Structures are given as structure tokens and as C-alpha cells.
Amino acid sequence: xxxxxxxxxxxxxxAADAEAAYRAHTRLWLRLLAxxxxxxxxxxxxxxxxYDFTMPRFDVLAxxxxxxxxxxxxxxxxxLMVSAGNLTPIVDRLVEDGYxxxxxxxxxxRVQIICMTVEGRKTFRRMAKSHGAWLAELLAExxxxxxxxxxxxxxxVKGAVRNALQxxxxx
Amino acid sequence: xxxxxxxxxxxxxxAADAEAAYRAHTRLWLRLLAxxxxxxxxxxxxxxxxYDFTMPRFDVLAxxxxxxxxxxxxxxxxxLMVSAGNLTPIVDRLVEDGYxxxxxxxxxxRVQIICMTVEGRKTFRRMAKSHGAWLAELLAExxxxxxxxxxxxxxxVKGAVRNALQxxxxx
DNA sequence: TCAAATTACTTTACGCCTAAACTATATCCT
DNA sequence: AGGATATAGTTTAGGCGTAAAGTAATTTGA
Lengths: 171, 171
Description:
Low-confidence stretches of chain A: 1-11
Oligomer: homodimer
Helix content of chain A: 55-70%
Strand content of chain A: 5-15%
Number of helices of chain A: 7
């Protein structure tokens, strides 16, 4: 918290400079938010209309798709960056609907292994294909040769934020 | 929906090309989502811890800050890109807490004008300053001279998606 | 003029999300 | 061994988000 306020540059226009920097960073944040919510809203709508599904449910299946032997439940909150409590009812419903199974581990009865069913995998693959096509359609107008550059910049943003958070955590 | 599937390029490797394009677009989407949720989570945490406030409430005040004469309630869903029903309880609570006022219009009794109170404005300004500083802190490691380029790219993404949505709407 | 359509907003039902408290199991340590 | 601590997961309370149905005021138009 103290960082931004208490390490002013040598310039004499500290306040103005800080204001300008704030505005630039805020602008970036607003653009990020606008792009994400625009795309997210449309993906949400299509998942609902075409598959009667939600994105969080899809995200869980996506994590399981590459783990044929299943996944420890505790891995999901980390990978999906959501809270553990949030996942309980989502996983519950995926089990009810027959897309995944949930089995207690024999070695540690606190731990549960979740695993995609054959039916779940089939459904997921179908949705994943649509998901890719929807994104390609929505982003079609953005020149393909700029995609990698943008992804790289976003990776750098992500790294910068992560570092800032870690730094803060150690304090 | 048909677009991505039924307008293949002249190349002979249609399926593979499409898959590769899907992956590139999906990668961009995942990065966008990661950056946004990383920053959003941290901003949410700080709003709660330092001001016992939430981002949606802050967003409403931000819209009102530049409208000294108040705003028609119906403008908010458009500007904030959220549903009208969602705003009702948020506005209710901001009124209860004394940050804004809500007055029925004399000309059209369906319409309500909302307006920030003096107290609301004071609180908002304080929070807005922190908000800017938080973002500057989180993004500090990202080189400033790349900010504008990234913002420009995101503007192009936004425009591309908007066009794709309009295009779809007319269909 | 007055019934039909439109507009502004609210309500309802339901899912996602968090933080914080809780349960059950496992591990650590004396 | 057996109490303190840690870990895996669930539950609870409460805010945000949507879609769809409902209410009240206004406008349209035959």
C-alpha cells in the first residue's frame, strides 16, 4: 500500500505524474474488464442456449479432460483460481448429472478423487469444439498475426501482477 | 454459428488449420480471463478490507461522479453492461447508506433520477484514489512504455467482438 | 377515446463467488 | 499413547449476476 504513495520520482511534478500513471493503469484495467465481460457474457449465453450448461461447469470438465486417471479434488480450486467452498455444489451437480465420479481415497479418507465418465468426456469434447469455434468467430476480425503479441503482453501483465501479489504477501 | 464451420479456406489442411486457429484464440481468451480475475480478486479484497465496499457499488458511484445533475436510472445498465434487475438492490443499498438519492421524475413517473450526495462524493473520491494506486502498484512491473500499445490492442479486440456480436444480431 | 403496445423498473428463481466457521481425518510431537 | 496442530472438504451467510415474469406509467393509433 505504501509503495505507490511513498516512493515518488525525483521530478518536481510528483502529484501530476502519479495522477497520469494512475490514469494509464486504470485505462488498461477498464479495457481488460470490458473485453473479458463482453466475451464472457456471449460465451455464457451460448453455453446456456445451446447446451444448457455454464462456464464454471465447463471449466471443471476441461481440467479433468487431460487427467485420465482423475484428479484430487483439492487441485481444482488452485487450478481454477476459485474458492474451495464454491466448487462443492458445482461438483455435486456434475456427479448427479453423470459427467464425473467422486471417490474417496483409500490412503487418506479426507481426500476425494474425481474423474470424468465416458459420457462426460463425450459431452465435453462436443462443447469444447463449439467453444473454440465461438471464440474464433468472436475474434475473427482481430488480425491473426497480432494474436501472439497480445498473448505475450498479457503473459507479462499476469507475471507482473503475480509478482506484486507475492511481494505483498511476504510483507 | 455456421460461419466458422462452413467457410473453410482453400488450403487442403482445413481441419488442422481450424484447430490451430481455435487454439490461438482460446489461448488469448484464457490469458484475458487470467489477468482479469487475478486483478479483480485483489481489488475486491482491498475494497472489502479497507473500505468494506464492493466493486459493483464503486462502479455505480463512478458513473455518478461525472454527472453533477444526476443520471436517469435506466442509463446505468447500459453503461455498466449489467442487467437492470441486478442494479435494483445495489442502488437500494447505496440509497440506504446515504451515498446517493433516488427521485422520481415529475415528467414521467416511471423514471427515476439518481444523484450522488455530498457524503457519497467524498467517500467515492477517497476510494477512487486508492483504486488508482492499487492498480499502479499491481501493474508496476509492467513497463510503462508498453501500456499504450496494450490498451490499443485491447481496443481492437473489443471492437472486433462488438462487430461480431452486431453482425450476429442482424442475422 | 380507449384498448394495445411500449417503456422503466422490480421481483423471483436460480447459479456463481467469497469469507469464515465447521467436521472429520491425519500428522506431529512430547 | 494422546493432545495440539494441520489439512481436505463442506456448510453458512451474504453479495453479484442472469433470465424471465410482473407492475405501473406512458404512448400509439384505430
